[in-house]
Amino acid sequence: MPEATDAPISAATSLALDRTAAIPGGGRAGGGGQDEIEEWHSPRLLAENLRVYASNRIALGGAVFLVLVLIFCYLGPLLYQTNQVSTNLLNGNLSPSPSHLLGTSPEGRDTLGRLMLGGQSTLEVALAVAAIATVFGTLWGAIAGLIGGVLDALMMRIVDAMLSIPFLFFVVLLAALVQPSLPVIILAIASVSWLSTARLVRGEVLSLRTRDYVAAARCFGGGSWRIVFRHLLPNALGVVVVNGTLKVADAILTFAAISFLGLGVPPPATSWGQLLTTGINNLFNGYWWELWPAGLLIVLTVIAINVMGDGLRDVVEKRLQQR
Amino acid sequence: MTRYIVQRLLQSILVMLLVSILVFTLLHLLPGGLVRAQLGPKASPHAVAQLAAQEGLNRPLPVQYGIWLWQALHGNLGFSYKLNSPVSTLLAEYFPRDLLMVGIALFLAIALSIPLGLIQGIRRNRDIDYGLSFLLLALYSMPSFLLGVIGIILFNIEFNLLPPTAIHFGVNFGDSVSALVLPTGTLMLGNVAYFSRYMRSAVIDNLLEDYVRTARSKGAGWGRVLSRHVLRNSMLPTVSLIGISFPYVISGSLIVEALFDFPGTGLLFWNGAQDRDYPVLLGVILLISTAVVVGNLVADLLYMVLDPRIRYA
Asked: Which of A255, B215, B254, B313 has the fewest CB atoms lying closer than 10 Å?
C-alpha cells in the first residue's frame, strides 16, 4: 500500500522549495557523534535555525503576514471599537462608509469589527485543534511504534478505520449530535486531525529506533525512558512541528467548511467561515463587503501558514542533513 | 502474491468492522438516544420506554450491534422516518450520482495534473514553476465553497452560461450536463493542486535517476526520454494517489453538494444531520466508508498489477 503519512493534510505546498533537496527517509546519515550534538533548545542552535528560516523570503513573508493578522484580530478591536453584541436590522447590509469602514452585516453589525472577532475564534480553534491533535497523535504513534506487536497492529487499524470515514462526514456527525460550541467544534475537528500525525510519528519512531546512536545509547546503559526522551522524541520533534504547523492551516479550512454547513459557533460569536457564508447567502444581492474580505482573509492566512510550514521543513531538513 | 492479496482483504474487512462499531457506538452514546430523537424532547417517559422496547433499543449494546450488523449485511439499513423510505432505497437512488460526479472529477484532476506536474518538474525553479506553484497553493488554500462561489459568479452572474444550482440534475440530459459542470469543476480543481504537487516531485526525482542519464548517453532524444521513461515512471505514484485521496474527494463532495444542491449522498447526509435522521446518517457513513475501503483495495491491487517491481517481489 502506498504510504499515506504525507496525506493531503500535510501535502500542502511546495512553493519555491525543492522537496527533492530533502534527504529521503532512509538516507539520513545515521552516524554516531551524538555526544557533541547540542540540545535542540540551545541558544546557538535556535539562532542558527532562525537564520535558515529567515533566509527563505517567502516563509518569512508568511510569518510577517501572520503577525499582522494577529495584530488585526487582537489589537484591532482596541483601536476600532464596534458594537458586536446588539443587532439593528435597520442598519443591516449598509455599504462601506466612514462610520462603517467595511459596511455592516445583515444584522447591522460592523463588518470590519466582525472580521476581527471572527478571526479570534478562527485562530483559537485552529491552534487548539493543532495542539490537541499533535500531542495526542504523537503519543498514539509513539506508543504504537515503540511497543509494536499486536498492540501496534490494533492501534494502527483503528487509525485506518477512522481515516476511511471521510473526515468531513465524521466532523459533521459529531457537530450535529452535540450542540455546537467552541469546545465541541475543537474536539470534533481534532478527532480527525490527529490521525495523520499518529501515522507520521509511528513511522519516525520505527525508523529512529534502529539508528546506531540508539544502539550506542543502549550499550552505554541508557534505559528505555532515557532513550525515548533524550533520543527519539527530540529527533522526531522537527517533523512533528512541521506537521503541526500545516495542521493549523487545515483546521482553518475545516472550521470554515463546518461553519458553511451551519454547524459553526452560535451568535453573537462568529468566525471567518461564518462571515464568508453570510456573504455567499447574499451573493445575488451584490454585498461584496460581506463576501470578499472574509474570503481573502481565510485564503491569505492559510497560504501564510502553509508557506511557514514549508519554511520550517527546510530548517528541519537542513538540520537532518548536517547529522 | 496470493498471500498479499488475502492479507489485504482480511485487513480491509477488519477495518470495515471497526468503522461499523465506531459509528454504531457513537450514535448510541447520544445524549437522549435514538428514541428521543424520534419522539422529540417532550415525549413522556412511558412513550420513550415503549418505543425503546418495541425497537429493541433496551437490549445491551453488543446485542443491538449484532442484530444491526446482521440486518445490514442483508441489505437492510433501517428506515428513515423523516423521508419515509428504507435507507437502502435512498442510497441506491443517491449514490450513483456521487459515483458519476466524483469519478469525472477525479479523472479530470489526474488528466490535468499530469501535464502540469510534468511542466513544473522539467522547468523547476523557473518562472513558470513558481507561477504554477503559487496558483496551485492558492487553490489548495481556498475553502472549496469559495471556489464554487467564484465559479457561480463567473459562469452564472457574469456570463450566464451555467445554472447556479444543480437541482435540475436528472430532469433531462441537457440539464443534467449543465448542472454537473460547476460542482464537478469545483471538486476537480481542489484536487489538481494536490495531485500535481506529487507529480512534480516524482518528475524531479525521476529526472535525477541513472536510467535517464543512460538513455541520454545512448543517444535518446529528450522527447523520447521524457515520454518513455520520466512520464511513465512518474505517473505511477500519482495515479496510485487516487486510492489515498478518496476520503478527501468524498469529503469535498459534501461541501459541493450542499453549495449546489446536488442530489447526492452528501446532501442526503447533510439534511439527515439537520433532521437528526440517524438511520440515514449511519447508512451514508457506512456506504461511503465501504467505498473508501474498497477503493483503497482496488488501487493497491491495481498498483501491484501495474508495477512489476511489486508484482515479482
From this structure: B313
